[in-house]
Amino acid sequence: MSAPGQQDSTSSARGAATFVKGLRLLQSIAALPRPARLKDIQRASALPRATLYRLLGALEDERFVVRDPLHGGYLLGPELARLGHRSREQDDLPHSAREALVAIRDATGETVHLAVPRGDVMIYVDKVESLASVRMASMVGNQVHMHASAVGKAFLAALAPEALDRYAGTLSLAPMTANTVTGLPALRTALETVRARGYAVDDEENEPGIVCFGQALYGVDGQPVAAVSVSVPRYRLGDDWAHRYAGPIRTACEAAGLLTAPPGHEDGPGQRRARPGPP
Fold first, then answer.
1. Which of 216, 217, 194, 218 is closest to 205 using CA atoms?
2. Can you provide one Gene Ontology molecular function annotated for this UniProt record (predicted)?
């Protein structure tokens, strides 16, 4: 009899193997003439008939494949097209956002980062450096935890409730500094504050001595795809920080067309005008 740990390991391995088979099945369908006939799919994929039927059914349920109503057979589905579009958006994002990043740096005098989500972290994909001699030390490719960063909290706050619930279960909530929010209820409260203000604040939660202000960026489908932030040394913050830092982020991103509101919302998540309040 297998121990519970061994059973979990075996189940995970089987799940991973099924996932890989599903991906390879999609590749097989993509390589075949359209629409892909069932017998051709089976020949190309080399899957047993029962496995093939099961995987096709699962992929069809999730709209990764669809049946051709006129000719029979299978076509790649709209969900793949949506994912491909989101991928292209992220690839193009540094280019399309560059002008806004420079404008934010020029307006604030501070370092500006553009970050995209990867699992439970945000990855810096572009950066415009402050010209000041004392500034945040970072580089493109660095990652920051979502729960402890302005870019991460801005992105999380912009998610639809069901998407946020999915992310919540994956967050590490590890303490990066003494100020880091490490409990899920406290994080949800913090995200409500982000929505009310229209921007996120990292009050020395990721790095001591550094305060950051973040704004979510949206794709053409109204879903958050990235976030931009300004990073300020605490000693340089001043009393007018809401107008000095949070305001220019929104102004520049709005001018660049990066704040598309979600469908059905005149003023979607993260889209409210910057409102003053303590970090």
1. 194
2. DNA binding
Domain ranges for the chain, please list them: 4-76, 85-255
- CATH of range 4-76; options 1.10.10.10, 1.10.760.10, 3.40.50.300, 3.10.300.10: 1.10.10.10
Q: Which helix (H) or strand (E) holds 24?
A: helix 4-31
Strand partners, 232: 211
CATH architecture of 85-255: 2-Layer Sandwich (3.30)
**Residue 140 to residues 37, 143, 150, 157, Cα–Cα distance (Å):** 45, 9, 16, 23
pLDDT along the chain (279 residues), means of 10: 55 75 89 89 92 92 85 84 64 77 92 91 89 77 93 96 89 94 95 95 95 91 89 87 86 80 42 45
Ramachandran sector of residue 141 (left: φ over 0; alpha: ψ -120 to 50; beta: rest):
left
Yes or no: say if 58 and 36 are a contact pair by the CB < 8 Å rule. Answer: no
Q: Report how far Cα 167 is from the mean position of its chain's Cα atoms.
A: 10
Q: How much is the CA Rg of the chain, to the nearest whole Å?
A: 22
Instruction: Point out which residues pair with 121 in neighbouring strands.
Output: 118, 145
pLDDT, tens only, 45-56:
999 999 999 999
Strands (E) located in the chain: 65-67, 74-76, 111-118, 121-128, 143-145, 200-203, 210-218, 224-233
